[in-house]
Amino acid sequence: MSASPETLVTAAARLLLPAPGTVTTLPPGLRARAAAVLLRMALDQALDAYWQRVTPSMTRVGKHRMLCLEWYAGHDTARRCRTTWSALSAACHYRTYELPPRPEEIHGRLREVTSLLTVLRATGS
Question: Which CA distances in Å does 63 have to 22, 37, 83, 112?
Answer without folding.
Answer: 39, 18, 14, 21
